[in-house]
Fold this protein.
Amino acid sequence: MTEVPVRRRYNGLAPVERTRQRRIALLEAALELFGVDGYQGTPVKRLCQQAGLTERYFYESFGDREECLAALYDGIVSDMRAATLAAIAETTEAGSTDIAAIARSGLSGFIGYLTADPRRARVVLVEVVGVSPAMEQRRHGVLRDFADIVMSVWSALDTELTPQRDHLTAVALVGGVNHLLVYWLMEGGHRDPDELTTTCASLFTAAFQRRHEQ
């Protein structure tokens, strides 16, 4: 009978937990360095120094630097999506069918999450752009996902959607929010996020209300 090797614990932690904690430390380092100094200016060695780990442990978690960026991006996007959906749900579950109120809630969750930490905004809006074809596909998938969220809100309020046309409108609106946030970031992040939310909410509301005029 073959004996199963016993995995030793260090500081009371099982190996799988230590691996998980090292990955978290590397992602925290990536947020700080990619979000402040930029992806292109941050080699693997600096990430490891920031995390207090050797390069051996970097490659334990990631195949290369781009894989680390992708993991960081996915994590931020997941939390951003959750914040957006939670804000929308809070309004709709209270019984509201007012598109202006729903749009403002969702956008407040989305914009609030990114602007609360400019490092997140820089990673999502700037640092992932043009890195590789694979990363561009990832970005496109996120844009499509948020356009689908807009469509789901609209379809709950109006059963007479024109899927192709209205989906293009949703994509344009999501892209507009993205570029407004890029503008906010590149201008130093001085504008009040609530002002950004108000501007975007007015566009989303007007687009929804004017669909039947086309």
Remarks:
- Residues 11 and 55 are 22 Å apart (CA to CA).
- DSSP finds nine helices and no strands in the chain.
- The two ends are 75 Å apart (CA to CA).
